[in-house]
Amino acid sequence: MKKIAWAILLIAVVVIAFFQYKHYVKYSASDYFNYALNDSIDVNYYDKQAVLQYYKNAYELGSFARQIWANHGVDINIPDQEKEISKQAVLYYQQLWAATRMLEKKLVLSARLKRSGLDNKQIKLLFEQGIDPATYSYKKRVEAARSWLGLQIGDVGQEVWELQQLLIKKGYTMPQDGTFGIETQTALKEFQESKNLFPSGKVNLATIKELVK
Fold first, then answer.
1. Which helix (H) or strand (E) holds 43?
2. Distance of alpha carbon 63 from its chain centroid, rounded?
3. For residue 145, what is the DSSP state?
4. Do 180 and 154 fall into the same domain?
5. Phi, psi torsion values for 31, nearest 5 degrees
């Protein structure tokens, strides 16, 4: 009987020690409460304060979570809805987390826009005027193609070559030689008709807006 009792006691000690160890590992791990920083953000964002605020918020999230656990036994990740301090702590944490995520998304988007060719000045314009990147990109394409305005049969040059290139990409057949001949005119008329535009065979602003979509 003594052997059985000792065996049971030993098992109990092992089980208790195991759960205490798990508890220690969970709450003593340095990264348990840390906010995972995103390494895809634009650290050269036009508003330096936004970058600093992102890092400050990330640090505050981890620091607050550790303090509220150490001082009050509240686990931000597993809140006790019966305790007022737990509810208040979670509310504060969630608000700070949401603000940090919003900053992070903006900084990641800025990095992506820079990879597409935009600079800080253009990105600032996008964000501060509330223009979405797709709309901004479309407007830039329209502006870049304004040199095509008035192109018609008989014209020759780089603008005609660019127009032909775009029409060919859209499935029309013609030589890409920089000369606005009958084949280019026919293709342009067909394109205009497909977009419910008057088939003049001459490039106007309405045609450009459809071509660069």
1. none
2. 27
3. G
4. yes
5. -100, 5
